[in-house]
Design goal:
Radius of gyration of chain A: 25 Å
CATH topology of the largest domain in chain A: Porin
Radius of gyration of chain B: 25 Å
CATH architecture of the largest domain in chain B: Beta Barrel
Shape of chain B: elongated
Oligomer: heterodimer
CATH architecture of the largest domain in chain A: Beta Barrel
Number of strands of chain A: 9
Distance between the termini of chain B: 37 Å
Strand order of the largest sheet of chain A: 2-3-4-5-6-7-8-9
Strand content of chain B: over 45%
Largest sheet of chain A: 8 strands, antiparallel, barrel
Largest interface: A-B, 70 and 76 residues
Structural class of chain A: alpha+beta
Chain lengths: 218, 246
């Protein structure tokens, strides 16, 4: 087994070095490209004559709501998120959030706390891929129209609770309401699932989070 | 007081956003029979206006391949990037709005991205940033969190990445580097100690240009951890992720 791994290691090294020499070779012949560059400035000048249109594919926001933490009750949750809109359908969204867990039934019944207050602080992060499934428009009265999106998200991250981190699978759906060109309101429901060993046995938990968020397009 | 940090960050971002909102616009004329104006930035939104040849419109901003426009009559809507190429500026110049493409990918300076992966049953999440020296060679700094059922590790790596065929849409690369790993065992295992070790790694992968400023990345890495007992451990890491370039 160890021998096989060394073999793999050596093969990778050889591949890396050959990759490097290719790179250096390509770098050595790069002066050839200088001639192509002679025509380039003209193309660039043509683009500069046009004004730079404001690019707003980035969304940054704050959310708050409630998170049910299996065995430990439902508590308030809050966090920040950042979304990159790759195209009209797909976006990437990263979130960091925090909540505090309550006491489990056994802790209450036997009056025997398992965790200290600081261990009850839960923080998590995740990066999810989102898909705008149902873009649409809603009407309020006969003068106002707002754009909306119904989207779903899936991805993974980590949940940190009682001194340990747990790899967490996250999925859910959300509704984006564009109050203005630069402002969006989000309603999200997400499931955070992971496996922990805090009760002395392997336990798979599903924690439901329901939030409302406010974001700005940049 | 726990609310304050996120709220302050958000307010600061808001201020920056408004400070930088000196809007530049573009006034253009339709030269093809007509262009379609949508109510929102996506093909799922309805078309509410067909703007005839000779009409003028003002372009305000860009969002994920769509442009927000207003017509001279004051109607506001969105136009697809390709449709806007059917217009000319006041001095009769064709509109060449810069759309990021694969040639920009070949000439990128910076990369930022995230990878998800598997390390022999444990999960790993990585954030990476690279500086591209030449189209073939770049330096990459990455930070990872590896979560297993018995321990959690934080990992920092500095790698050199060689990309022999930068002009290919799906382009292979080879990487080699060094780093540090901090491992803390789960609180349920009392006997084990936390560790801090040096590492070295070697790997290969592919980058595939997706669209606009995004690419897909697939990677295999062999990580060697030099433990304090003059011994080493080996880990195989498989990852997949996306990145954006500048």
């Amino acid at each position: 087994m160890v021998y096989r791994r060394w073999q793999l290691f050596l093969t990778s090294t050889v591949l890396f070095i050959s990759g490097m020499s290719f790179s250096l070779l390509a770098y050595a012949v790069e002066p050839m490209k200088a001639e192509e560059q002679l025509i380039k400035p003209e193309v660039e000048r043509k683009e500069v004559t046009l004004p730079r249109i404001d690019n707003e594919s980035l969304e940054i926001g704050y959310y708050t709501g409630s998170m049910s933490f299996e065995d430990f009750g439902t508590n308030s949750v809050q966090g920040l998120f950042i979304a990159f809109h790759i195209n009209e359908d797909v976006f990437l969204i990263g979130s960091i959030g925090e909540t505090t867990i309550g006491e489990s039934s056994s802790e209450v019944i036997y009056n025997d706390p398992m965790f200290s207050d600081s261990q009850r602080k839960v923080s998590y992060y995740n990066v999810l891929l989102g898909y705008n499934l149902l873009p649409g428009e809603v009407f309020i009265g006969n003068k106002l129209a707002f754009n909306t999106d119904l989207y779903f998200v899936v991805g993974s991250g980590s949940t940190s609770f009682a001194d340990d981190d747990y790899a967490t699978f996250v999925y859910g759906w959300g509704y984006r309401f564009l109050g203005a060109d630069w402002l969006s309101i989000h309603l999200d429901v997400r499931n955070h699932s992971f496996t922990h060993y805090k009760f002395g046995y392997e336990k798979a938990v599903k924690n439901l989070e329901t939030t409302i968020g406010l974001a700005i397009f940049f | 007081m726990r609310v304050s940090l996120p709220v302050i960050t958000l307010l600061a971002l808001l201020l920056v956003s408004f400070a930088g909102q000196a809007e530049t616009t573009l006034h253009v004329k339709v030269v093809e029979p007509f262009i379609q104006i949508y109510t929102g930035p996506g093909k799922g939104y309805p078309v509410f206006l067909d703007l005839q040849r000779g009409s003028w419109l003002t372009v305000h901003r860009y969002q994920a391949n769509w442009y927000e426009v207003t017509t001279d009559k004051g109607d506001k809507g969105w136009v697809r990037h390709a449709e806007l190429l059917k217009t000319v500026t006041a001095d009769n110049q064709a509109v060449v709005l810069h759309n990021i493409s694969q040639s920009d990918f070949e000439q990128r300076d910076w990369e930022l991205g995230a990878l998800w992966g598997d390390v022999e049953g444990s999960s790993i999440f990585t954030l990476f940033g690279s500086y591209v020296f030449t189209s073939n060679l770049s330096a990459e700094l990455s930070a990872s969190q590896m979560i297993g059922s018995l321990s959690t590790s934080e990992l920092v790596n500095l790698n050199l990445v060689a990309q022999p065929f930068p002009e290919w849409r799906v382009s292979p690369y080879f990487t080699m580097g060094t780093g540090r790993i901090w491992t803390s065992t789960n609180s349920t295992l009392v006997q084990e100690k936390d560790r801090d070790d040096r590492t070295t790694n070697i790997g290969f992968g592919v980058r595939a240009y997706l669209t606009r400023s995004f690419f897909l990345r697939l990677e295999y890495k062999e990580l060697l951890i030099f433990t304090s007992t003059n011994d080493y451990e080996e880990l195989e890491i498989w990852s997949i992720g996306v990145g954006s370039f500048f």
